[in-house]
Amino acid sequence: MTEETHPDDDSYIVRVKAVVMTRDDSSGGWFPQEGGGISRVGVCKVMHPEGNGRSGLLIHGERQKDKLAVLDCYVRKDLVYTKANPTFHHWKVDNRKLGLTFPSPANARAFDRGVRKAIEDLIEGSTTSSSTIHNEAELGDDDVFTTATDSSSNSSQKKEQHTRTISSPTSCEHRRIYTLDPHPLDHYLPEQRCVYCRDVFQRAHNRRGRCHDAPDPARTCIRRASCLWCAHSLLYHCMSDPEGDYADPCSCDTSDDRFCLRWMALVALSLLAPCMCCYLPLRACYHCGVLCRCCGGKHKAAAAWS
């Protein structure tokens, strides 16, 4: 990189571990940036280099072993972000094509939400939202970092909404009148941010099926028992576009140009791996289990990073 950037640790919306990749159109492949290696990559709030006092959102990557800045890319409204597969995402700004290879899908999901949050802030014209000024929070064992929500301030603000000051028309004395709280007690329970989906939740309402991004043993077993990875491998190697993207194996979207070809290939593959035919019935049973709250992922609170 020609210019190093060192954002403050508390300015990150999200921060994960990944390998920074760059696109080589001449060979049609992706290659590690600056020799590769694991980097800390995050979306952070920084001041624009023009010195006009305005702040912007920057995707910044720093290699762990030598602290070399291998990625500096400002987030723009026209940024095209693509999730090629669960552990590889890439984006395009102007003529630059950059990508990240993540060590786990949890890292990829967290970074994807951070980028989309940054784009939403740019569209709304706000880069000073609460999610960009809080301290970092550790997101579980996957070395994913995002911001934490100050639940105590939120609850205190909610309580102050029910406090009114009324002045007497015959005197200068002010009286503070406390009205009864119309909300139940659990309305003011501390809110926490989920490690996986970054949504805010309350522990009392955290049940199975609430978090679609959380790991779920039942869903994992269904995918492995039905050999769904065979379908993903077939579509990735035979029906993906130049960027490595491909349609969902079970998609019924007839607008897809390769709709018939994809299903014919899957039917032929199921003759070699008959267990693939069990996926749809098993997935239907899984959805019933989610409705009965005996299957599905649960939110996991992010612990404060110190």
Automatic annotation (TrEMBL):
Name recorded for this polypeptide: Sprouty-related, EVH1 domain-containing protein 2
GO molecular function list: protein kinase binding
Keywords linked to the UniProt accession: Cell membrane, Cytoplasmic vesicle, Membrane
PROSITE patterns reported in the protein's UniProt record: SPR, WH1
PANTHER family linked to this entry: SPROUTY-RELATED, EVH1 DOMAIN-CONTAINING PROTEIN 2, SPROUTY-RELATED, EVH1 DOMAIN-CONTAINING PROTEIN FAMILY MEMBER
Taxonomic lineage from the root: Eukaryota, Metazoa, Chordata, Craniata, Vertebrata
Compositionally biased intervals (Polar residues): 146-156
GO BP terms: negative regulation of epithelial to mesenchymal transition; negative regulation of ERK1 and ERK2 cascade; negative regulation of lens fiber cell differentiation; negative regulation of transforming growth factor beta receptor signaling pathway
Location of the protein in the cell: Cell membrane; Cytoplasmic vesicle, Secretory vesicle membrane
CDD domains to which the protein is assigned, alphabetical: EVH1_SPRED-like
Keyword Cell membrane: yes
Pfam families xref list: Sprouty (PF05210), WH1 (PF00568)
Species, as recorded: Jaculus jaculus (Lesser Egyptian jerboa)
Record keyword Cell membrane present: yes
Domain WH1: 5-122
Membrane-topology annotation of the record: Peripheral membrane protein
GO cellular component, one term: plasma membrane
Residue segments, region Disordered: 127-170
